[in-house]
Amino acid sequence: MIPTDWIYGLIGGVMIGAAAAMFLLINGRIMGASGLLGGIIDGTGKANMKERLAFIAGLIGVPAIVYFTIGAPATNVSNNMLVLLVAGLAVGVGTRMANGCTSGHGVCGISRFSVRGIAATLIYLLAGGVTMLVLRHGLGVI
Amino acid sequence: MRILFSLMAGGLFGVGLMISGMTDTQKVQGWLDVFGAWDPTLAFVLGGAIPPMLLAWQLTKVKTTSLLGTTIPTPADPALDRRLIIGSAIFGFGWAVAGFCPGPALASLSFGGFGGLSFMVAMIAGMYIQPSIKFFGLGSKA
Lengths: 142, 142
Prior knowledge:
- The complex is a heterodimer of chains A (142) and B (142).
- By secondary structure, chain A is mostly helical.
- Chain A has a domain of 65 residues.
- In chain A, helix 5 crosses helix 6.
- Chain B is mainly alpha-helical and 142 residues long.
- Chain B has one domain.
- In chain B, helix 2 crosses helix 4.
- Chain B is globular, with a radius of gyration of 18 Å.
- The mean pLDDT of chain B is 93.
- The interface between A and B is large, with 106 and 115 residues.
């Protein structure tokens, strides 16, 4: 039997890909979460601010509607404030420096065989794996 | 129309992230925990997300304008640089520490509690300060 988690992963994944395809073919834009949000934060996205805000509103709002009507899976988010602040800062700085995250470099980059997208994905996967090894199995802090 | 489709794409992306299990930080950490209790779900998510985008990018080869009239971006794929490499490594570290990347952090904002909100505040702060990094050419693009 295939674990149901994998099937849900695949179904959710198709939805993520469909959202990216729709954003590309209808709006003519690349669906990268860090780029869309980052452009609002640092002001570089002034030219299409409304489109960015609408995307973020949908990304927060529609899951919120699902959560309040049907429910949502647990996020199991850490309650260690230091962990959250260090991780948040690193994700914010790193994704803007690299110009993309899992959606932009991962989904949109790999699918067009972008060398930068594939390289970025391999690097953040490797960095994430090493971090788990050191901080979970080595030091036992996460 | 742009706003409406932007909202819809964001919403579909968010629900896809929820269904696929990517808003569960333990699942994401499980994927990066190759030497522990490895959880391969994320591979199914990427496997589901890439085919629709692969198709979409192929379509843009014959159709270069989006449905709403804008030119579909064909991002150049310049050589790898230190911003991409170092940025992706910093992102991968933060991704592993909290189990959140930007998309799922936004999608789970309504049900991620105080921890999720704290991560978001730190991530936004990171996005805000990144352009002002003054060393090694890692700040704003000159």
